Amino acid sequence: MTETLPSRLAEIVGAQHVSVDPDVLAGRCVDYTGRYRGRASALVRPGSDVEVASVLVACRDASVPVTIQGGRTSLVAGTVPEHDDVLLSTERLRDIGPVDVRERRMRVGAGVTAAALQEAAADAALVFGVDLASRDTATIGGMASTNAGGLRTVRYGNTAEQILGIDVALPDGTIVRRHSEVRSDNTGYDLTSLFVGAEGTLGVITAVDVRLHPTPRHRVTAVAGFADLDALLATSSVFRDVDGIAACELIDARGSDLTAEHLGVASPVDGAWHLLVELAGDVDPTERLAELLAEADLVGEPAVGMDSAASQRLWAVREGIGDVLGVCGPPLKFDVSLPLGRTDGFVSAATALVAEHAPDAIPVLFGHVGEGNLHLNLVRCTLEGDAERALYAAMMALIAEHGGNVSSEHGVGSIKRDYLSMSRTDADVAAMRAVKAAFDPDGYLNPAVLFP
């Protein structure tokens, strides 16, 4: 980094919003799991889209790469710098606009957390369609950049389906503000969709218009236990197509055991596999839920939450799993998407693969089974270097063999960039590279992400 760049960044955003302190940078260069680390030369925190654009130009002119950071909840090292980058944080972009109740939409800054967005929507008796266990930290800018899914995907879809407009600062300093007040707008390229899911490789998302949804009048939650995974998958395939489905989550009993041991939150049911389902609608779905569970091959009786407090208790196990996975050291995570009919075979093969490469590791599976989006986590996995890379490569190949995708909702980041070709054709990758070159010909924006 040139000696004058920090001074130039301070002129743009204010000295108090620029840091070159090694301790500050070290804390910003580790990923959410604690497993991957990088290096950076400076941290800058712009307070507006104009400041973001000016920072990008200053870094480009100094030939210094930029890594964008939001809530830093990426699980694929998507915010870990590799080239002494300048870290551009969107944390100060926290404006929350008024809710348009009639059109059910609102505009928010990229640094607004999912929890803050949900609270603002709830105050207007509306719902934001994406919910994550990391809601208190994850930001809408990062969620848009990775097209995050989450706990309500089976009902509302991924983040892309919630975004109606977008503000983006491009690498050359141009600011694109793509907004439309109408719901049907067929005027040329869909620029909003181009930046959503691009993982910050084409520009910095600074604000978004989000779609909101009516709040269901009734909601009922249940957790059911199963002796084997195949029985759970059969029930999941029924629930995911039911009118009013709001959540359909798989929980490995080993994960439930961890939450009981370390958080004091015990599962309310027995069985090796647990299924959390939630139905919601304007008509009470309790009777329909009971009918469907009566037809399932369960272990014991399901636990049912009829009111908000009871539902929250049932959700506690599922939401607590992510917090306890790191108690025995950084877990090795695999975020995958699979056809539902091939999930059981994959899990058996993956368990054997883990036993071969890391016999002391404990595989824990959970995720959004209604969408085939699953998170396989290896607890007490002490592999490093070549040994870790060998297991990772073998697991990616196994996912491809079972007709899956190497990423379901966390993006590619830097961890999965070498496996992009397993889910994309050569022509796909070439087309994406051409788009990247058009927007960022110098290749200085998020250079460690997406492309090998």
TrEMBL record:
- Where does the FAD-binding PCMH-type domain lie? 36-215
Is this entry keyworded Aminoacyl-tRNA synthetase? no
Keyword list (alphabetical) reads: FAD, Flavoprotein, Oxidoreductase
What Gene3D superfamilies does its record include? 3.30.465.10, 3.30.70.2190, 3.30.70.2740, Uridine Diphospho-n-acetylenolpyruvylglucosamine Reductase, domain 2, Vanillyl-alcohol Oxidase, Chain A, domain 4
Fetch the PROSITE patterns from UniProt: FAD_PCMH, FHA_DOMAIN
Q: Which domain of life is it from?
A: Bacteria
Q: Does Coiled coil show up as a keyword for this record? A: no
List the InterPro entries hit by this protein, alphabetically.
FAD-bd_oxidored_4_C, FAD-bd_PCMH, FAD-bd_PCMH-like_sf, FAD-bd_PCMH_sub1, FAD-bd_PCMH_sub2, FAD-linked_Oxase-like_C, FAD-oxidored/transferase_4, FHA_dom
Q: Which GO terms describe its biological process?
A: respiratory electron transport chain
Which cofactors, by name?
FAD
Q: Which Pfam families match?
A: FAD-oxidase_C, FAD_binding_4
Specify the FHA domain's residue ranges. Answer: 154-202
Q: Which GO terms describe its molecular function?
A: FAD binding; oxidoreductase activity
Per the similarity annotation, which family is this? Belongs to the FAD-binding oxidoreductase/transferase type 4 family.
Q: What is this protein called?
A: Oxidoreductase
Upper taxonomic lineage: Bacteria, Bacillati, Actinomycetota, Actinomycetes, Mycobacteriales
